[in-house]
């Protein structure tokens, strides 16, 4: 994927990196090459910013109708620093084509708004689209992060893909967040909540008064996420939901998908109070009733059409397979591995 020139300038704030970061393939060298090819991308050194935990971040959502996914840019109005959350790399499974239209839309917005990128964040390894985190890192040099339990997903799926040599230690990211870890976006305090159930590695980012819950809660008229993927658990999902709903009622919740029930326009913001009152998977439910409801629903669902395509890319941080001798990249699709065939 060749760097595409931007209109305006994108500023990237430097972050501390683990000691072994420089020795990891496909990180600094790729970012340096990409920035050299795109002189309008500007890297600015990190500066100390006073903490302001009460600040309200600005949240901009970008809906992808192809995958019903929402990408986010969350920014601090006081410092104009920002993070990208759950970026999408466009992929057409019929032709095998990839492009960067949706990721480039994020970069254009950041340039137009004069924002500085501090983080590229994923909430979990996605099963329905490719992550654009690696592409965005190559374009900007900003660090990538995900939950520390990504290593559990890597160990599980390296067996499914029969990749005994795959490095299942999370080295593909610059930081692995553990439950309770904190960081900042500009002057706004952020905290990580471990939110398993949908996947083994799902996390929630609580940034100021906003929580990015991705595949846990959907909009109140759409219930909750499925929990039947390899490593999923409806019981674990219920416990994760209770932790999210223990946040203050006014907390803004931003979901990762919206399937537009009844053909309504896409929506992605709710509140803790609205979820408690209006979501039929939450209101009036007990753990026992929720698990029964969720497992019965999941038993009727086919596997996502891109799960076998996407996991091999996303467990590698959005890195596409290396080109083979003919210059082409190839995905590996295991046969007769997952249940949930839709004949």
Describe the protein.
The protein has 343 residues and is of the alpha/beta class. The protein has eight helices and 17 strands. It has one domain (10-15, 31-314): Ribonuclease Z/Hydroxyacylglutathione hydrolase-like (Metallo-beta-lactamase, Chain A), CATH 3.60.15.10. It has helices at 28-37, 101-113, 133-140, 150-160, 234-245, 272-278, 287-298, 307-314, and strands at residues 10-13, 41-44, 58-64, 69-75, 81-85, 88-92, 97-99, 116-121, 130-131, 144-147, 175-177, 182-185, 188-194, 203-207, 210-214, 252-255, 269-271. Strands 1, 2, 3, 4, 5, 8, 10 and 11 form an eight-stranded mixed sheet that branches. Strands 12-13-14-15-16-17 form a six-stranded mixed sheet. Strand 6 and strand 7 (97-99) form a beta hairpin. The chain is globular, with a radius of gyration of 19 Å.
Topology:
Layout: E1 10-13, H1 28-37, E2 41-44, E3 58-64, E4 69-75, E5 81-85, E6 88-92, E7 97-99, H2 101-113, E8 116-121, E9 130-131, H3 133-140, E10 144-147, H4 150-160, E11 175-177, E12 182-185, E13 188-194, E14 203-207, E15 210-214, H5 234-245, E16 252-255, E17 269-271, H6 272-278, H7 287-298, H8 307-314
Parallel strand pairs: 1-2, 1-8, 5-8, 8-10, 10-11, 15-16
Antiparallel strand pairs: 3-4, 4-5, 6-7, 6-9, 12-13, 13-14, 14-15, 16-17
Helix pairs in contact: 1-3, 5-7
């Amino acid at each position: 994927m060749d760097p595409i020139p931007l209109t305006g300038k994108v500023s990237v704030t430097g972050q501390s990196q683990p000691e072994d970061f420089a020795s990891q393939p496909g990180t600094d060298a790729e970012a340096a090459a990409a920035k050299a090819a795109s002189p309008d991308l500007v890297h600015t050194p990190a500066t100390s910013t006073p903490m302001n935990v009460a600040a309200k971040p600005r949240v901009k959502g970008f809906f992808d109708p192809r995958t019903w996914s929402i990408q986010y840019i969350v920014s601090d109005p006081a410092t104009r620093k920002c993070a990208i959350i759950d970026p999408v790399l466009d992929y057409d499974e019929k032709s095998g084509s990839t492009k960067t239209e949706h990721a480039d839309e994020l970069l254009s917005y950041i340039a137009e708004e004069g924002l500085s990128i501090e983080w590229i964040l994923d909430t979990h390894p996605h099963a329905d689209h490719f992550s654009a985190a690696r592409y965005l890192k190559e374009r900007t040099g900003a660090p990538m992060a995900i939950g520390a339990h990504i290593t559990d997903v890597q160990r599980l799926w390296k067996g499914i893909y029969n990749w005994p040599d795959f490095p299942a230690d999370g080295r593909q990211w610059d930081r692995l967040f553990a439950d309770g870890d904190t960081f900042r976006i500009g002057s706004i305090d952020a905290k990580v909540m471990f939110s398993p159930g949908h996947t083994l590695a799902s996390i929630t980012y609580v940034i100021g008064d906003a929580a990015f819950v991705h595949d846990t809660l959907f909009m109140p008229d759409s219930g909750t996420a499925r929990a039947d993927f390899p490593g999923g658990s409806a019981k674990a999902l219920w416990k994760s939901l209770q932790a999210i709903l223990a946040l203050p009622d006014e907390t803004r919740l931003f979901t990762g998908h919206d399937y537009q029930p009844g053909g309504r326009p896409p929506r992605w913001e709710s509140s803790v109070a609205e979820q408690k009152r209006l979501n039929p998977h939450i209101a009036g439910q007990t753990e026992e009733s929720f698990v029964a409801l969720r497992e019965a629903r999941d038993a009727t669902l086919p596997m996502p059409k891109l799960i076998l395509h996407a996991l091999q890319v996303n467990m590698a941080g959005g890195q596409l397979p290396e080109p083979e001798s003919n210059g082409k990249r190839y995905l590996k699709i295991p046969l007769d591995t997952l249940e949930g065939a839709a004949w």
